[in-house]
Amino acid sequence: MPQETQLSSASAAQPDPVPDQVLAAYRKSIDNIDAALIHILAERFRITQAVGEYKAKATLPPADPDREARQIARLRKLSEDADLDPEFSEKFLRFIIEEVIRHHQKARGG
Fold first, then answer.
1. What's 84's domain CATH number?
2. How far out from the chain centre does Cα 93 lie?
3. What is the domain count for the chain?
4. Which keywords does this chain's UniProt record carry (predicted)?
């Protein structure tokens, strides 16, 4: 019998490890939060897409650096209050803002 077959037969004969119920519960919560984040981001991008279309029709610039700075400061404060690393929060928000601006530029045709 080839060695690969022996290994797969041996591993198939071993019982599955006992599921860790505590870890499974944590993972289920994480999965639920991840799903909520995806839905929240989808809704956010639907709204920012409408903003981009409005800005294009009104010939407004795709970016608003003053608002971005205010939002970053506001969300850094919220992060601190929530015991979340403000540096991480700012990077995450900047990533989103860059994507929104890219969409707004696209809506503008450039």
1. 1.20.59.10
2. 10
3. 1
4. Isomerase
